[in-house]
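Case study 2.
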Amino acid sequence: MNEVYPEDCISLSRDFVQPLHRSIFPNPSGPVMKRYCTATGLFPGEIERLLESPFGTMSLQPSIWRAIDLGNIAFMPPDYVMRSLIELYDYNYAHSLHNRRRVDIPNPSALVYAALGSSWLEGAPIFTRHPRTCVVTTHLPPYTTLPYFSLRTIHPSLLAVRARLFVSKSDLSAVYPLVDDLALHSGRHVDPVFQRNPNTIPSSRAEAETLQPVPRKRKFVDSLALQAKRRNIVIMGRSPPAHSQRPRIPLAGTDILTPNDGLLSIIRGRTYYPRSAKNGVVTAKTA
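Prediction:
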């Protein structure tokens, strides 16, 4: 096929829906992106902005996004782009942060990419929609009939990272030696400047607020409130009184027979009554 298809004309479903526009790497703080920043001459904090800009976003069918996230579909950049990236990686790993060449200058344009489908799709068909006639074509494994695609704005270096993950998962290193070579060059090390989490670096304003002295009067008020709170906790959590200090609660009554002027009368008494009362009952019964 000589026709170049736009990025939203490929799907795992015959029904094409509204494309989803998002970043190719939703997690910019992962180890993959840290190695990418080291190899491509970026500075700390830049990758978050780039991944939300046209540099790192695409508009794809939702089913294709799911397959890309799982490493089951990839868009392979041309070979000369892969060679340029390998050369760039070699140069940047040999130089310090401020002497590295940046990958985003210049930005290659008018590139075409080969779409690759993995065996992990388990024989699922891939569908393409012709950009002019809207005719839907079915492609079956090994997906050799897929057309070439033109991706509008995303940088090929990010697609090369996705292609590297795809080749590694599908065990296709022998088929794509340039991707395997790129993987060896990109996995050397991570610059320590990218190891630190930006969220843990306090701003100058936060440091000023942290170091600002607290007035002595405010400390005293806070300490009184804290003491009162502790007293309430102690009172609420105090253990119940001992058994000897509890008020005696009458137990349920039991009918007891006692002699009274030769007659038997019924009185209310305790379940565990004194032995003298028990002897009186026995005497009355035997009389």
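The chain has two domains: 4-197, 254-286.
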